[in-house]
Amino acid sequence: MFMKKAIVYYSYSNHTKRIVDMIKQKIDADVFEIKPKEPYSTDYDEVVDLGQEEVNRNYLREIEDININLNNYDTVILATPV
Ligand SMILES: Cc1cc2nc3c(=O)[nH]c(=O)nc-3n(C[C@H](O)[C@H](O)[C@H](O)COP(=O)(O)O)c2cc1C
After folding, report:
1. What is 4-79's CATH superfamily?
2. Which atom of ligand 1 is nearest to the CA of 16?
3. Would the N or C end of the chain have less CB density within 10 A of its end CB?
4. pTM of the predicted model, to two decimals?
5. In angstroms, what is the span from residue 23 Cα to ligand 1's centroid?
């Protein structure tokens, strides 16, 4: 059976998205974006502080459902910022 590639990514300020767009020009892949249910603030310093706090207390922010059937893909590329 013909299997496809998927790129699943999260990007806060679109750097990762730009890389995903470059990958997409090289390979045929379906792209899925991870979106937090409650978006992060647009204030960078605020997000850095909050991110640190979320890591410290092992908090996993809820994300929107991603409509992906992994059985349809033989390769999944996961792209995230550091
Ligand atoms: C909450 C948070 C924490 C970050 N921590 C680091 C870090 O520890 N080291 C680092 O080099 N960059 C850090 N950054 C910078 C991001 O890696 C950088 O902005 C990246 O380009 C974001 O990718 P994006 O545009 O796809 O969201 C942090 C950014 C955020 C928002």
Report:
1. Flavodoxin domain (3.40.50.360)
2. 26
3. C
4. 0.89
5. 20
